[in-house]
Amino acid sequence: MTMKVRDKVIAIIAEQAVLDVAEVKPEMTLEDLGIDSLGLVESIFAIEEAFDISVPFNANEPEKSGFDMSSVEAIIRAVEDLVAQAA
Amino acid sequence: MRRVAITGAGTINALGHDVPSTLTALREGRCGIGPLDIRDVDRLAIRIGAQVRGWEPESCFNRQDIALYDRFTQFTMVAARQAVEQSGLDFRGKLGLDCGVVFGTAGGGVNTWDENYRTVYEEGKNRVHPFVVPKLMNNAAASHVSMEYALRGPSFTVATACASSNHAMGLAFQMVRSGAARAMITGGAEAMLCFGGIKAWEGLRVMSKDACRPFSANRNGMVQGEGAGVFVFEDWEHAKARGADILAEVAGFSMTSDAADIVMPNQSGAERAITGALHDARLNPEDVAYVNAHGTGTAANDKTECAAVAHAFGHHADRLMISSTKSMHGHCIGGTGAVELLACILALREGVVAPTIGYQEPDPECALDVVPNVAREARVKAALSNAFAFGGLNAVLALRAA
């Protein structure tokens, strides 16, 4: 299950960044991936749809969202937490 | 080139159902934002808005009219009636051949779309009311106003998202100034506080769940409003000759495009529109005492707008007052510039600068005099009204005291 979340999140990010899945590394930031604010909002929407979860995120105060987006790895962990909570 | 006078004003918005009550609310710094009273609000993440309260269309229109008027048209008709009455103009004779209507709206009949999609998708019906199309079309309000007052010159509607009514009023100004029209009824309206209208905005994740706090460091997004603002723009000499009461002069207008991003604002595009409006009005920066900001309360707009204003005004930026009245009447989207023009008229005519309410913490990136929380008395001889739309379309009007 955990592995599946990881793969799905990476696939969503890769699609948004127009990269191959293999090119998305855990330590990369959204900036490294070239994902802008609109791309971020679209990624969050895709994540919500894929896992049937609700990601707390307000573009005006991303730091207060309680959803760590500092790197690909952080996003994966945050999604895993939300999925676990929803289960 | 002719001069352009404003000889009539009308409105309905969350602060009031006419101009006097709206101006009183702006003066008092009253907030029109509250819990939304709409169908399926429990399925929304955003549950606040600046709704028009106590609105009873039956008290203003007959049954046949209501069958044809979406809420945005109803708002427009009410505001237009006030504006035309104040102007004292009668367009039924030859004058009406040289006069028209230009309105702004972003969504047009959003409530009509929403209700009828429910009918066919949710309720599974296969039949809708025959007037759905004439009700929802974006030009419905402009057309009904032209019919009501026999305005037979150029009439049309512009849609540039949150700058719609500034673009509309700018075009009306240019038409009267150039002599293409003797007078124009102009402004705009929006009524998208319905389930679909708010759900769409939720998706962008730029909306606040608690309040609109423009320029405040702890701002967390915009709050939608609804309503209409309608004005009569008239050839100055025509207005003078008939002894009309001139509320203010429309002195200049400028529009620019960022050509950059579909949602993010752009300092250079905004700044060029501000500078352009000053030039068009032959105003020096130091002539302007007040700017009605676009001031949406989003992180991105407010800091970009402050940088643009600071740059466009240079040293004078420190002496300028800039407030966002969206903190009170909400973001009326395509109608917002029209409602906000009232704050400019209040400043020019009555010497009262409406405040930015909800202001709690200074933001070093918005280090201008934002007239926090309390209105201020000041002599204002010229004012600007900013509107910067999604899609990078900017429209700034310059007004002078009459």
What brief labels describe this structure?
heterodimer; A: 87 residues; mainly alpha; Non-ribosomal Peptide Synthetase Peptidyl Carrier Protein, Chain A; 4 helices; globular; B: 402 residues; alpha/beta; Peroxisomal Thiolase, Chain A, domain 1; 2 domains; ten-stranded mixed sheet; two-stranded antiparallel ribbon; 13 helices; 14 strands; 34% helix
Task: Give an overview of the whole structure.
The complex is a heterodimer of chains A (87) and B (402). Chain A has 87 residues and is mainly alpha-helical. Chain A has one domain: ACP-like (Non-ribosomal Peptide Synthetase Peptidyl Carrier Protein, Chain A). In chain A, 57% of the residues lie in helices and 0% in strands. Chain A has four helices and no strands. Chain A is globular and about 30 Å long. The mean pLDDT of chain A is 92. Chain B is an alpha/beta fold and 402 residues long. Chain B folds into two domains: 4-241, Thiolase/Chalcone synthase (Peroxisomal Thiolase, Chain A, domain 1), CATH 3.40.47; 249-400, Peroxisomal Thiolase, Chain A, domain 1 (3-Layer(aba) Sandwich). Helices cover 34% and strands 19% of the residues of chain B. In chain B, strands 5-4-6-7-1-8-14-13-9-10 form a ten-stranded mixed β-sheet, sandwiched between helices. In chain B, helix 3 runs parallel beside helix 6 and helix 10 (267-280) crosses helix 11. Classes of the chains: A mainly alpha (87), B alpha/beta (402). At the A-B interface, helix 3 of A face loops of B.
